[in-house]
Amino acid sequence: MRHRSLPLLLVALFVSTAWTLTRPPDFDEVNFLTLARGAVLDPWRPHDISLNWQGTTERAFDVLSNPPGIAWWLAPVVGLPVMAQRLWMLPWVVLAAWGAGRLGQRFLGSAGAGEVLVLTAPIVLLSASALLPDAPLLACCVAGMAGYLDAVERRERAWPWALLLGAAALFRYSAVALWPLVLLWPLLQRRSVLPGLAVALPLGLLAAHDLHAYGQIHLLAMSRFQAVANTPLDWGHKAVAAVTMLGGVAALPVFKWRKAHLVAAAVGAVAAYSWGPVAAIFGALGGAALAPALLALFDDSDARPRPDRLFLAAWVLLGLALLLTLRFSAARYWLPFLPAALLLIPNDLPMWRITLGLALGLGLTADGAWQARGVAALAEGAAALRTDAAAAAGVEAGATGHFTGHWGWQGALEARGWTALEEGEAAAPGVLVAVPSEAWPQAVSMRCSEVLWEGVASAPSPLVPRGYSAAVSANLHANWIAGPPPARTVIPWWFADDPYERARVCLE
After folding, report:
1. What is the average per-residue pLDDT within 116-135?
2. Packing angle between helix 90-108 and helix 5-17, nearest 10 degrees?
């Protein structure tokens, strides 16, 4: 693949996903838009704003375990239409594509191959215009790492590239897991490690900022917040979910499997089977996707130099280790480690791999857009309350009340003047309460003396892959699905025909 494939690919991807740029905010996008509004109110202290996270209103500093980079980036467009906000994210995709091309040239001998492999990975397509830290994180990691590797090899100035890589930690703290690689590469190349120390400068400056702005370092506060899922069951659950998400929606193992890959797939299938036969399928895919990284440590049949293989394997395995320490798993958490996984997978079926990755990515992108629009329409219907039952109860159209639930549902109702009902609280008599079934509804005390309105957001077709479905316990955004009670999941997506959301408005 030649380097000039990049402009054509970018145009094709933009055209094929342009209609999703107007999708309303959903899932965690709502939280980051709130954080961006905090940056508008006080650019120095964006985490001082309050948000309702899973039913409890708290300061963002205490519950949102992300640095403020995305808030500062979105602040200039936070009051613009959602399409403008999503277009504002796309320059990061171009930077990521450039870095992927450099990595492809270095490890595959083809810049075009690196660009296409990264840009057609399903989770990259899902993240391209998302109002999340993911696109900036990927861009800083890929471009910074690519430039750093080349500069070290050529004995050129490497510290600016280490600085760019370090800037990834301003968007997600998970980028810190790449720091050991910055020291490993010059050791493998017999070069000085000193230029790589610049990788710590952005996070060091952020820590100094936090001490001045909040009196404590946010990263340290969030390390305590994240350390709540470390039982043996939690570790096993996160390990299986991380592997299934890797093979199911990140680095699709589309290549000619050898015996070692089949063995790894069998181990993955057995590990995931307790969650059901479909989970076993994703377990097998995940095992096969992880196998090249494990084989790179011991298998000399790969024609690439051993230092290259060791470096890429360490990149992937550091990612797996990090995912085991987090509060929960999500498919997009693989993004900083995705390039290495893609570069290690044998490229002996390139067209199949690209076609399937692109098809799955576009299908899940369409599914996310339909879900976001369906939830927004439900929220609009709930807020309008133009029903005979509401009129009989003396409720005027457009009356406000309380709501339960998170994600896009929360954002849509808050924009219409509704307020969250706190976890464990009860609404006063005569107050309206809007309740969803899927948007992580918190436990509250409700009588629901009269149901004034009910609505359903239906999925368009069971043939579209679903990134969130209660019917098949699939969720690529986390390894849990809404209750009550919440249930553990390991399937990133599957086919289903259950509604995206059901909601009702009650008169207390």
Report:
1. 93
2. 140
Give, for 123, the enclosing helix (H) or strand (E).
Answer: helix 122-127
Residue 125 Cα distances to 242, 450, 485, angstroms: 19, 43, 32
Q: Is 50 helix (H, G, I), strand (E, B) or coil?
A: strand
pLDDT at 10: 65
Assess contact for 81 and 123: CB atoms under 8 A.
Answer: no
For residue 491, what is the DSSP state?
A: B
Give the per-residue SS3 of 300-354.
Answer: CCCCCCHHHHHHHHHHHHHHHHHHHHCCCCCHHHHHHHHHHHHHHCCCCCHHHHH
Range list of H helices, 189-245: 201-214, 218-226, 232-245
Say if CB 105 and CB 345 are below 8 A apart: no
Rounded Cα–Cα distance for residues 300 and 493 (Å): 35
Report yes or no: 507 and 435 within 8 Å, Cβ to Cβ: no
Cβ pair 492, 330 in contact under 8 A: no
User: At 350, which amino acid appears?
Assistant: P
Preceding omega of 485 cis (within 30 degrees of 0): yes
pTM: 0.92
**3-state secondary structure (DSSP) of residue 53:** strand
pLDDT digits (tens, 9 = 90+) for 92-113: 999 999 999 999 999 998 888 8
Report the percent of the chain where pLDDT is more than 90: 61
3-state secondary structure of 461: coil
The single-letter code of the amino acid at 22 is T
Instruction: Pick the closest to residue 285 from 317, 250, 335 (CA basis).
Output: 250
Task: Give the residues across from 59 on adjacent strands.
Answer: 50
Residue among 299, 345, 311 at smallest CA distance from 108: 345
CA distance 201 to 91: 24
Give SS3 for 176: helix
Tell me how long the chain is: 508
Amino acid letter, 212: H
Pairwise CA distance, residues 63 & 38, whole Å? 14
Decide if pLDDT at 41 tops 70: yes
Q: Among 43-57, 117-131, 378-392, whose mean pLDDT is lowest?
A: 378-392
Q: How far apart are CA 47 and CA 66, in angstroms?
A: 10
Which of 97-106, 218-227, 258-267 is predicted with the least confidence, judged by mean pLDDT?
218-227
Cα dist from 384 to 43, 371, 387, 400, 413, whole Å: 35, 20, 9, 9, 11
